[in-house]
Design a protein that fits this description.
It contains 16 helices and 16 strands. It is of the alpha/beta class.
């Protein structure tokens, strides 16, 4: 398989980040291998919400800056784009520091808001994907390494979900319902339509615990890059101490014949083996390490007992109602006493947790899942 490179990077200082990314991409053949002169290149960072870079919610702006420079050095024309989940795109770009990078480096900043229908060739027959992503000459994927309440981790493949514009993302959650496998299969097929040429992962400071929006910033100290997003995600799992096929997207890729059971992936750079990264006790969202192993039929029959679910911290909640507005299943409503969740309607997509600006929604385990752990 295509190799993956990983370089130590303990700081977000501009020169240190750029040096690590230049080496990581250089080990893969250099940016010239991925970008030809004159090509319009869309950089797709994680721009989930208007959170400062030190919160580890979004791709750090210095990672974006370094890749903008590499693309330009290779003769490409870089732009930066995403479709955020919370608030205005302009505010997200400003608070995350990515707007400053775009301005200082002369790169266009694009909200991925215009959709174009595309025919799928797998399980899902139709996708509505950002026109900007579809018509770029190349897409370079810039994920942040962090946990995710529904999908365990949000890494290279999952980061491309931001190429689905606006509230169309919510509809995909509703369509998949509680079937994690179906949602993962959709992400795998979406990846096949976008075909990113390169993924460069910000794992200098990652997020563990209650991700993707309210977890703990955790120093992991590396930059990873690779041409094959599945290989990148596999190696990221290994570095973080997570069994790779616990990741639903890798499991779905394996089932579709897109990724082997026992991959042979060359590791280039500062680490001879994933264990050399020295990452211990990387905390996953509560119960998710067990939930993926339970058959879908059992989870459907014993939905409350065998699955995790969102839980509102009434002390932190400010009744902003964003969770209720964004809930695909309309399972949440605000009362004088606080937010009430109808768990019979809840599809466990954790959109509410993802978009809560106050970190007031965490993950609770069903009673049987708690017993099994």
């Amino acid at each position: 398989m295509n190799p993956v490179s990983a370089l130590k990077c303990r700081s977000y200082e501009e020169d240190i980040v750029e040096g690590a990314i230049r080496k990581a991409v250089g080990l893969l053949g250099g940016m010239e291998r991925f970008v030809r002169p004159g090509e319009r290149v869309l950089l797709k960072p994680n721009m989930l919400a208007a959170k400062a870079p030190d919160k580890a919610v979004t791709t750090h702006p210095e990672v974006v800056r370094a890749v903008v420079r590499l693309v330009r050095d290779a003769g490409g024309i870089p732009s930066i784009g995403d479709s955020g989940a919370i608030g205005s795109f302009r505010k997200i770009a400003e608070v995350t520091g990515i707007a400053d990078v775009a301005s200082e480096e002369g790169a266009a900043l694009l909200e991925l808001s215009e959709a174009e229908e595309v025919e799928g060739s797998g399980t899902f027959r139709h996708f509505e994907i950002s026109r900007e992503a579809l018509h770029a000459d190349a897409v370079i994927n810039l994920p942040k390494a962090k946990t995710h309440g529904q999908m365990l981790l949000t890494l290279a493949v999952k980061n491309l979900f931001g190429c689905i514009p606006g509230r169309r993302k919510v509809q995909w959650h509703l369509n998949a319902g509680v079937d994690i496998g179906a949602f993962a299969a959709m992400l795998v097929e979406l990846h096949g339509l976008i075909k990113p040429r390169l993924s460069v992962v910000d794992a200098v400071v990652s997020m563990d615990g209650n991700g993707p929006g309210s977890g703990r910033p955790r120093e992991t100290g590396f930059i990873m890059a690779g041409e094959d997003a599945f290989a990148v995600d596999y190696m990221l799992c290994r570095f973080l101490g997570v069994e790779p096929f616990m990741l639903p997207t890798l499991k779905a890729a394996r089932e579709k014949g897109l990724f082997p059971e026992a991959p042979e992936i060359g590791l280039l750079g500062d680490f001879h083996a994933p264990e050399d990264a020295g990452i211990r006790d990387f905390k996953l969202p509560p119960g998710t390490h067990l939930e993926w192993t339970i058959p879908e039929t059992a989870r459907r029959l014993l939905k409350d007992a065998l699955t995790t679910r969102p839980r509102v911290d009434e002390v932190k909640c400010r009744l902003c109602m964003l969770c209720a507005q964004m809930c695909p299943a309309k399972a949440m409503k605000g009362l004088d006493a606080g937010i009430k969740i109808n768990y019979r309607r809840c599809i466990r997509c954790f959109c509410c947790q993802e978009i809560c600006p106050y970190g007031a929604i965490d993950i609770a385990q069903g009673w049987l899942l708690k017993y099994l752990s």
